[in-house]
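sorry for the late reply, my laptop died twice this morning and i had to redo everyting from scratch. anyway the thing you sent over, i finally got around to it. pasting the sequence first so we're on the same page, its 185 residues, then the predicted structure underneath. double check i copied it right bc i was rushing
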Amino acid sequence: MTVPTPTHIAHHLGYAVRDATATALRYEKMIGATFRLMPEYNVMDMYGRPAKMKVYYGAMAGLAIEIIEVQEGNTPHSDWIREHGEGIQHLGIYVPDVIAATRQAVANGGRVDWIIPKAGTVQITGGSTLEEVLAEVTPHSLVYIDAREGGTILELLGPPIHNMVFGNNLKGLEELIGTKLPAVG
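ok and here's the structure:
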């Protein structure tokens, strides 16, 4: 399954918050944003332990927005809140090939902080080689890259993740955003 765009594009802004429901409701009332609660995210945390997140996806001011509340476990979002407080934690970037984009980001100074669905498996030891880390990235991965500049994490996602989110649970969100995202293929 491919998405017909050869370039990277901004996909969404990811907010790390303490109360996802309250945040979604506040933006809906304040500026007419629209959000949908996703099914509970059951992932592995940064240490390979089970983690749970409550996630809303929606549209606000022509942007796709993801609001994330960590309910259990230690994820980059909970670390972000401890270090910076609530707010924009990541910029989601659609990439046609998540493996190639991850390799490019790391080759140019980025650091892999988290990989879903295999989150945690490469962070267990500080001695993991670059090739061991990159071997964990698959076409179905979502990869968090610390760019080490600018503060915000880069979330790389490819066609399978985009299609899963926007082709299923959020079908029709594109009309709310008012921005043309890659076609769900």
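DSSP finds six helices and nine strands in the chain.
thats about all i looked at so far, will dig more tmrw
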